[in-house]
Design goal:
0% helix; 7-stranded mixed β-sheet; 122 residues
């Protein structure tokens, strides 16, 4: 059974930092066959892409988080990270991990995690 399990969320003060983790399990093929992303959804808003790291290691970020968030991956550990720095009140949301097949064998396959809550408050 394929699973993406996020952790690391919590309550943080404005200007603080968090590190989010997404651990993958049950994949038939190595995680390097997948583009990995972090999305977030704030109350009353649509889910939005925060950061993406391709199977080849290329990264892309939403304008709202550039310079503050860093996505990385360790395929050997089946883990994707999101380093969240200089948090703002508007970063409050549920953060979701997403895997999308990036190779001929895995294309068309995609998976979501259950989410981890990040709350920014003073």
């Amino acid at each position: 059974q394929v699973q993406l399990v996020e952790s690391g969320g919590g309550l943080v003060q404005p200007g603080g930092s968090l590190r989010l983790y997404c651990v993958a399990s049950g994949f038939a093929l190595s995680l390097w066959n997948y583009d990995m992303s972090w999305y977030r959804q704030a109350p009353g808003k649509e889910r939005e892409l925060v950061a993406l790291i391709s199977a080849g290691g290329l990264t892309n970020y939403a304008d709202s988080v550039k310079g503050r968030f860093t996505i990385s991956r360790d395929n050997a550990k089946n883990t994707v990270y999101l380093q969240v720095n200089s948090v703002k009140l508007e970063d409050t949301a549920v953060y979701y991990c997403y895997a999308r097949g990036a190779t001929v064998v895995t294309q068309g396959n995609d998976y979501w995690g259950q989410g981890t809550q990040v709350t920014v408050s003073s």
